[in-house]
Amino acid sequence: MASEKKVKAVTVLRSDADFGGTPDTISGGKTKKKKKKQSIGMIEKPLFDVVKQFDKATTAYRESHEKSNAKKKDGWILDLPKNSSKALGKFKIPFNPFG
Q1: Range 31-44 average pLDDT
Q2: pLDDT at site 63
Q3: How far apart are CA 90 and CA 54, in angstroms?
Q4: Which of 50, 55, 74, 83 is at 20 to 30 A from 65, Cα to Cα?
């Protein structure tokens, strides 16, 4: 039975008589990484770090909220200060202006 590995590229070799002897890649191969403007990269990384931290904080709050709600009827209201402070503790903004 044939191997089930994925083929990345197929190279066809030609003789000197046909097309000058240069190999042709039919499909696949390495894709080039798109270049970004440096100024956009300087904005993107810190912004993305803040968004990741915000996601951690909201996830922590949501989990605490659901846990409080499951324990008691309207338990989320009673545990609102505790759940909020727990979520804010997870929200740490990394700030490094030089990298």
Answers
A1: 78
A2: 92
A3: 8
A4: 50
Looking up tokens 């240069």, which residue turns up?
A: 22
* CA 88 vs CA 36, 67, 69, 92: distances in Å: 33, 17, 19, 8
Q: Is 35 exposed, middle or buried (0-12, 13-18, 19+ CB in 10 A)?
A: exposed
User: Are residues 82 and 71 in contact, defined by beta-carbon separation less than 8 angstroms?
Assistant: no
C-beta separation of 29 from 9 below 8 A: yes
Contact 21, 12 (CB under 8 A): no
Task: Categorize the per-residue pLDDT at 43 as very low, low, confident or very high, splitting at 50, 70 and 90.
Answer: confident
**Cα 36 to the center of its chain, rounded Å:** 17
Are 25 and 5 a contacting pair, CB within 8 Å? no
Q: What is the pTM assigned to this prediction?
A: 0.53
**Among candidate residues 74, 53, 54, 56, the one with its CA nearest the CA of residue 65:** 74
| CA–CA separation, 28 and 86 (whole Å) | 48
- Please say whether the beta carbons of 47 and 95 come within 8 A: no
